[in-house]
Specification:
The protein is mainly α and about 140 residues long. The chain has helices spanning about 15-40, 50-75, 80-105, 110-135. It is built from four helices and no strands.
Length: about 140
Amino acid sequence: MSAMTAPRPPASQLSAGDRRLAALMAFEAATLAVFAVLHLSGVLHPGSGAANGYGAGFAEAIICLALVLGLRAFVRSPARGRLAALAATVFAILGFIVGLTFTVHGGAPIDLIYHATMFPVLIVTALMLGRGAGAAALGGGPRD
């Protein structure tokens, strides 16, 4: 007589925890997209010179794209895409460190507030992704 076990969901189906994590990554990418547009359009730094806003906007757009690609890989296959999502999040964290460096040395208050708010959110996202990646590597699968 064998023990009854619940059928495992397909690899592409997200658990409740993975859905929350995907939503968090989508939120992070969306905020980056908004700030990229605001910087590239000159709304955040009117009259301060194109280089100031364009540099930040371009960096935010690249980080946003990395997060979207990591999120896409994660949503398509949580077990295999988790590492891509983690790499994208670490890339975003490094980008935010660079952004904070520039912002502290002459950025607008809104930029400082944005970086200071989103930086810990990215850290939490990376920790959540890393926790699941560690469990998956040990054969336990991602946790909820």
